[in-house]
Design goal:
Chain B: Pfam families: DUF979. Chain B: It comes from Geobacillus thermoleovorans CCB_US3_UF5. Chain B: This is Permease. Chain B: Keywords: Membrane, Transmembrane, Transmembrane helix. Chain B: The chain crosses the membrane at residues 6-24, 36-52, 58-76, 97-115, 131-150, 171-195, 207-225, 232-250, 262-284, 296-315. The complex is a heterodimer of chains A (228) and B (320). Chain A has 228 residues and is an all-alpha fold. Chain A folds into two domains: 1-55, no CATH class; 59-224. Chain A contains eleven helices and no strands. In chain A, helix 8 runs antiparallel to helix 11 (194-227). Chain A starts with a helix and ends with a helix. Chain B has 320 residues and is mainly α. Among the domains of chain B are: 81-151, no CATH class; 172-317, no CATH class. Chain B contains 14 helices and two strands; from the N terminus they run H-H-H-H-H-E-E-H-H-H-H-H-H-H-H-H. In chain B, strands 1-2 form a two-stranded antiparallel sheet. In chain B, helix 2 runs antiparallel to helix 3, helix 9 (191-202) packs across helix 11 (229-248) and helix 11 (229-248) runs antiparallel to helix 12 (253-268). The chains are: A mainly alpha (228), B mainly alpha (320). Chains A and B meet through helix 1, helix 2, helix 3, helix 4 and helix 5 of A and helix 1, helix 3, helix 4, helix 5 and helix 6 of B.
């Protein structure tokens, strides 16, 4: 019965009701089915909402980024990249992927982030590289490049950070095994994270290379049509 | 301690509450009162979260959800700079524009690495439990002062510009916190054990290969439901990995941990429940489809999930 909440979430996301409503409904339903009182459930909403305020910390970057955008930061990032002949969308994103993943593996997870790096710098640079080559981009291509920029930040962070010993994930796993009386060693966990970390870098770099090729093909074809 | 995470929340709260005042006064916004109220209440929960009794915070949260649900949250007008204005500013400032933007990561890293154990008097300079977040908060504050000095803008302009960005994110700003709430309720209601039992009933327990498959895919799927690999790991590992992989087949716990957690991260890349990685960035980058980031990530996630399964199976076979 408690799985009703899971069901509500899945159905809600499939039929695309506003996620905020879906999540609230799922929380209320699950709580009521587990025989909690409405007061308790609302109290849990309040407690969890307050303890998870750290998730809102990205708001701290908005005043700076907002001012800089007003003064042309995005355009400046685009124009810098447009001057570099060898720059392509895929290469810029690959470079950022490498930096992000290497930094995370060294424990520097706070280099990067969507609010502080992707929106003001990485996405405009990736767009600028494509614009310099192909001219004005249609909206769906622009969105695709932006989505790829966000994805690179996630993938670099996720698959880099577990290579670092003192990261939360490793400590959590160590703690779990200790509680269950199973011998484990953070150093070995971090070591065994390396193959997947390398695979992530290779797999995603290949996909970014293919993004370049598909952009090239897309605009080549459209230009070809234009000439006919 | 001199700088706690609470100070960062107060900074956030001030930015959001002040921004809401412009929303209340924004005549171009057809729903300016409900929209303004939404951001005002959100700011209040950031500012006073630790003082307001949890039940009342819960009520405020439900009011915000109700505003979103009844279509009371609308975009307004933001008097953005025209492309021509931006060009003029850009010609004057050029590459200096990058300085404040790059100050944020640089100062954050400096804070995390060097100021972690610094004490002034008897107290830590930074909240030792939240060094990264406090560093980030302080770094953005310094970067803000530098950018205001450089562009000769007022704090009001900073608030107005952050209001423009925050309102483009809209309700998605609340989602990560709400999903975390759902996670807590799921945990207390015993959703984890129910899922783990379900998986345990389906898989054939004599085949190492199928257990590895079930554990890795289970980690990914349960992470997709909970939005968080950290929540999935104890449940799936206690349910499948400890009794079957580690105790029955003698697999090294370190392999299980590294590859299992990464399988969970593959799930994180594929779910709207991981809102601050997938939905908030989509809103932040003005993408029309809020699932666009997820769509782009799915191929990489599936390939790496297959890699993790293969790696765990092969490594285990070699050890046996």
């Amino acid at each position: 019965m408690v799985l009703i909440g899971v069901l509500i979430v899945i159905i809600g996301f499939i039929v695309r009701i506003n996620p905020l409503l879906v999540v609230t409904a799922a929380g209320l339903a699950t709580g009521l089915l587990a025989h909690q009182s409405l007061y308790d459930i609302i109290e849990q909403f309040g407690t969890a909402f307050t303890t998870n305020r750290y998730m809102a910390v990205f708001i701290a970057t908005l005043p700076v980024i907002g001012i800089l955008e007003r003064f042309g930061l995005r355009e400046q990032a685009e124009s810098v990249v447009a001057k570099i002949k060898a720059a392509t969308t895929g290469r810029i994103l690959t470079a950022y992927l490498i930096i992000r993943e290497a930094a995370a593996a060294a424990g520097l997870t706070s280099i990067g982030g969507h609010a502080q790096m992707v929106r003001p710098l990485v996405a405009p640079m990736a767009e600028g590289a494509a614009e310099a080559k192909y001219g004005k981009l249609p909206d769906h291509v622009r969105d695709d490049i932006r989505a790829h920029s966000a994805a690179v930040d996630n993938i670099g962070l996720f698959f880099g950070e577990d290579v670092f010993i003192a990261i939360g994930a490793i400590l959590l796993m160590k703690g779990f095994f200790d509680q269950n009386g199973i011998p484990s060693d953070p150093l070995h966990m971090a070591l065994w994270a390396i193959p997947t970390a390398v695979a992530a870098l290779i797999v995603h770099s290949i996909r970014l290379h293919r993004l370049d090729r598909s952009l090239h093909k897309l605009f080549h074809r459209e230009n070809g049509k234009g000439r006919e | 301690m001199w700088l706690s995470i609470e100070a960062v929340y107060i900074f956030l709260g001030i930015v959001v509450v002040l921004g809401s005042l412009w929303t209340f006064a924004d005549r171009q916004n057809p729903k300016r009162f409900t929209s303004g109220l939404f951001y005002f209440l959100y700011g209040v929960t950031l500012l006073f979260g630790s003082i307001i009794p949890p039940f009342y915070t819960g009520v405020l949260v439900l009011i915000m959800v109700a505003i979103v649900g009844t279509g009371g949250l609308k975009l307004g007008s933001y008097q953005e700079a025209t492309p021509e204005e931006r060009r003029q500013h850009r010609d004057r400032l050029k590459h200096r524009l990058f300085i404040p933007a790059l100050l944020i990561p640089v100062l954050t890293v400096i804070g995390v690495t060097w100021l972690k154990n610094v004490k002034v008097g008897n107290a830590f300079l930074f909240d030792p439990k939240n060094v990264t977040l406090v560093s980030l908060g302080l770094a953005t504050f310094v970067a803000l002062l530098v950018s205001m000095a450089m562009t000769r803008t007022t704090p009001f302009m900073a608030v107005k510009e952050s209001r423009r960005l925050l309102e483009s994110i809209g309700w998605a700003a609340l989602l990560p916190q709400m999903l975390a709430t759902l996670g807590t309720i799921f945990t207390t209601a015993g959703v984890g054990t129910a899922v783990s039992n379900l998986v345990g009933n389906i898989i054939p327990t004599h085949s190492l290969f199928w257990i590895v498959v079930a554990y890795c895919i289970g980690m990914a799927l349960f992470t997709m439901i909970m939005g968080n690999a950290f929540a999935a790991f104890p449940v799936m590992t206690a349910g499948i990995a400890v009794p079957l992989l580690i105790k029955q087949f003698g697999v090294d716990a370190n392999h299980v941990a590294a590859l299992g957690m990464f399988s969970g991260y593959c799930g994180t890349l594929m779910t709207p429940m991981a809102a601050n990685f997938n939905i908030v960035p989509a809103a932040l980058l003005d993408l029309k489809d809020k699932n666009h980031v997820i769509r782009v990530q799915v191929p990489t996630a599936l390939i790496l999930l297959a890699f993790n399964i293969a790696a765990m199976y092969v490594v285990t076979l070699m050890d046996l």
